[in-house]
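For practice. Supply one:
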Amino acid sequence: MKHHHTSIKTADIFQAIAFYEALGFEITERFTAGITLACWMRGSGTYIELIQVPEPKNIADPFSDEHYVGYYHLSFHVEDLESFLQDLVNKLGRVKLLLPTREQTIGDRTYQVAFIADPDGLPIELMAML
């Protein structure tokens, strides 16, 4: 088995495309899913699928709600976390920071991690090995 894509529903596909392009993804296919716009984007060795929701509703807050159960976040390795965050701010104007940069030890490795939110509030973890 091989991972193909992760699907993300969004309130504004054009805003979401701009965000994920800033993360390094590129559109490979544009299509419709029923009555709505959708696309596949490739980056970081995988694909994401964005699907615009015609009448979006507020979702649970997977980052702040300690009782939330389900998919939690996407995680991406970056070489230099602070530079990557600054580059995102330069490209997007601002980035919603859910968790400021901190160190996290997992096993015998220490990482610098930060959590940001995509335009719909979905958590994105960025991590760099120290």
In short: The chain has two domains: 1-54, 73-130.
